[in-house]
Amino acid sequence: MARLAFASSPPLASARTLRRHFSILAAADPKTSKMPRLHHASLEVIGGGTDRFLPPLKDSLSKPYAAFPLIGFNRHAETIYAAFYRSVPFVRLRRECLRTKDNGSVALDWVAGDDSCLPPESPILILLPGLTGGSQDSYVRHMLLQARSKKWRCVVFNSRGCGDSPVTTPQFYSASFLGDISEVIAHVGDRFPRANLYAAGWSLGGNILVNYLAQESHNCTLSAAVSLCNPFDLVIADEDFHKGFNNVYDKALSRSLRRIFSKHSLLFEDIGGGFNIPMAANADTVRDFDEGLTRVSFGFKTVDEYYSKSSSSKAIKHVRIPLLCIQAANDPIAPDRGIPREDIKANPNCMLIVTPRGGHLGWVAGERAPNGAPWTDPVVMEFLQHVESCETINGDRLLEDVHQIQV
């Protein structure tokens, strides 16, 4: 901030950050009295930012959450149906491989053709898929279409090894490794310095995103963010992962992790140290993979320490930009009891929506159910467009004022 205040031509990233602070503050009225309920009773809506963020969503949230018959009756049925039977829209993507400072690589998938038909100041939405997920997943594709229909520029951040992203070092990614997301956001901001940046993350991608928001805190260059089906407390999530039918998800994810690892196993030959490569290569559970590889790669003494210190439930209190969290009360992978409700209530920048059903990455409800976009997609865009409208209304004038500040 100091650099911005004393420079006649402020850096664009700093100007973007300052513009966001002023525009969001301008939209807030701390003297607002308690509002009548603007959401349906079937939804839990709480948070310190509710007075600011709920009114723009009232049209969507005033309707009851109606899970699709036969599919939405059971959390496992909904989770599995969405994973295997939800449509996967065709979206032409243009891949950009980004080399990171540690010589690693991530893949950014942009919607093809955007550069020729969208102005450079169009808002940008960065998408972070869940564990082992990428731009090929149905929930990601539907969000791309939803945002693109609103004239937003979109890019999918495929983590190392995910979505066929190249792996160039003996390191993947973790729930708390923030180096890659930091470089991706900086890179996107440099490419489009006049655009406001936003991000949305699902599951582990949501956990990483919230941890990033907390790390950056007041210096975050994102204008707003959305976290969906975030496990939040990874210790609790790990406990539930080994119960009953959840073992099916555990084995499916560990199989995906093994598949990614096997493509790049030569990088890990003779790596030494505390790694247990055979355990990772043959992991039957996500915990086994994290024990053999992940926790060692990122300097944790035990898996439990890794899960505890990587949980974004502890980060919510430090978030300083508008954040919408959407969870399903019956999510088998992101347990309801792990949601940091009290910290969300205490943070004036956060709002939480909990649907009574939805499973994990499901939300088979709404006008487009059962095979179309999740119930969450329109809500996400309404929230982001509201913040963008505040940025647009207040931003241009603020930038001019900033340039006039003298020493």
Structural description of this entry:
With 407 residues, the chain is an alpha/beta fold. Helix content is 41%, strand content 13%. The chain has 16 helices and nine strands. The protein has a nine-stranded mixed sheet, sandwiched between helices. Helix 15 (341-346) links the parallel strand 8 and strand 9 (350-355). The model is unreliable at 1-10 and 395-407 (pLDDT under 50). InterPro entries: AB_hydrolase_1 (IPR000073), AB_hydrolase_4_CS (IPR000952), AB_hydrolase_4_sf (IPR050960), AB_hydrolase_fold (IPR029058), ABHD4 (IPR012020). Keywords: Hydrolase, Serine esterase. Belongs to the AB hydrolase superfamily. AB hydrolase 4 family.
Structural topology:
Blueprint (H helix, E strand, L loop, with lengths): L1 H4 L6 H16 L16 E3 L3 H4 L4 H4 L13 H11 L7 E7 L5 E7 L2 H4 L6 E5 L9 H12 L3 E6 L20 H13 L5 E6 L1 H13 L5 E7 L5 H8 L4 H18 L13 H5 L4 H12 L5 H8 L12 E6 L12 H6 L3 E6 L20 H29 L3
Parallel strand pairs: 4-5, 4-6, 6-7, 7-8, 8-9
Antiparallel strand pairs: 1-9, 2-3, 3-5
Helix pairs in contact: 2-16, 11-13
Written as H for each helix and E for each strand, in order along the chain, the element string is HHEHHHEEHEHEHEHEHHHHHEHEH
Q: The biggest beta sheet, please?
A: 9 strands, mixed
Mean pLDDT: 90
Radius of gyration: 21 Å
Q: How much of the sequence is in beta strands? A: 5-15%
The stretches of 5 or more residues where confidence is low (pLDDT under 50) are: 1-10, 395-407
Structural class: alpha/beta
Shape: globular
Biggest sheet strand line-up? 1-9-8-7-6-4-5-3-2
The percentage helix is 40-55%
Q: What is the tally of helical segments?
A: 16
Number of strands: 9
- How far apart the termini lie comes to 14 Å
